[in-house]
Amino acid sequence: MRTITWDEQKAVVKLIDQSVLPMKFQFVELTTHDDVYHAIKNMVVRGAPAIGVAAIYGMALAAREYKGQDLNALKASLAAAGKYLNLARPTAVNLEWGIQRTMKMVDEFEGSADQLKQKILDLANQAADEDVATNMSISRFGAELIADGDAIVHHCNTGALATVDYGTALGVIRMAHEQGKRVHVYVDETRPRLQGARLTAWELEQYGISYDIITDSSSGYLLRSGKVDKVFFGADRVAVNGDVVNKIGSYMLALAAYDNAVPAYSVFPLSTVDFNCPSGENIPIEERPQAEVLNLQFNGENVMPEGASARNFAFDVTPHRLISGLITEHGVLYPPFCRNLSLLKPKGV
Questions:
Q1: 107 an active-site residue?
Q2: What is the pLDDT of residues 250-281, one digit of tens each?
Q3: Domain 142-347 belongs to what architecture?
Q4: What is the DSSP string of 238-267?
Q5: Model's pTM, two decimal places?
Q6: Which of 131, 216, 236, 243 is catalytic?
């Protein structure tokens, strides 16, 4: 079942509400681009590829909100909507990619306002289908790296929920499982929003893949004790030198893997590469509300002292030297990443 769909009959975008999983499985319906902005901002929809497609659907809704027939006025309205949507989350480049892809078509379009509205919706549906095909290609390449019997640490959520369908890093594991390989996944909780414990574990249950949830701080022990064969995580933005910005905790996981000679792979579509960014040091890191950290409870009681403050960094930068390979829809890339990523630039959209 797709994370994001267009309901033609209702003319709404339907999303699986990831803020309530695994307790509830429900959809939300979005009717305006402002609805899409808040769904991205509040992580009702999350994961770089899913956010990119959601952004294009947001632009389709913005086009439908304009009721006039003046093409230039519609284009101006869409430009404003794109700037607004782009503010929802600053780190994941796919959000910007989706808006830029839409605006390129808008700027070049000649025709009626109604035709442009349909063209944007067609683009959103096309991007959704492309995402699924891309993820399947990524997963086939990545599954070749997994041996029968492998134990894998996976960070955050990179499955169907983080994409339109199938997934990136978790898609690789899923593909290996569907090929008949026996795999066991150690699922990092991924604090503070627990995307691993809530979402990845839920997905693995659906697929029948063996797993254990572990605290984020347990990965180092497992790697040092020889209980892990490989590490997989996704990416929210990748610099041209191969530095990877991903969910907070990815850097510490990759560092522990590197120190223990365990291969660590980052898995993502080419749309996640920022070819204008030379290194991870140039990428803005989103800081989310303190409440996500401070609202932690134990036995139904808040554990933080009253008046405590917190810093809630959503992402970190993993230097390319710690990464064994980058898995994309065009194959597995090995160092030197700068050269090999640059060779793929013409294939980007």
A1: no
A2: 999 999 999 999 999 999 999 999 999 999 99
A3: 3-Layer(aba) Sandwich (3.40)
A4: EETTS-EEEETTHHHHHHHHHHTT--EEEE
A5: 0.95
A6: 236
